[in-house]
Task: structure prediction
Amino acid sequence: MVTSVAIREFLHSLVDTAATGSQKVYTVPAGEVWEVLSVNVNLLASATAGNRRVVCIARPPTAFEVARGSSPVTQAASEYRTYNFGTGFTDQAAFIANYINMSMPRIILAENWQIETWDVAQIDPTGDTMDVRIAYLKRFVGEVNL
Result:
């Protein structure tokens, strides 16, 4: 019997429209490998004064960063903005109709690795509302008996 390794990929999306908060962390489940295609962040800033700056990072469980996307512009109080981080995106220097695109390198995350999005200024971490959508390829690796 010959044993070979099979890799299967499936397109998935994670949608988090949960309660308020301007910091979100997503962990790759055991037995999975993700290739992140894009991260979409919608931030509704509270009325608390201050300029927010949204970032998206990828990291292993040990907490050092392997990739970071950072908005080049800030967001003021009471504004709603959409941030798109992704491979192949062209970096924009300003919002266009409340949207901005930022490039990220190809990111492959093993189990227990994380994607984190947050306002690094931490203006109103419990009052701001952040919705996140992640598009990724979920990979399954296993042996196939031939």
The chain has one domain: 3-145. Residues 44 and 80 are 4 Å apart (CA to CA).
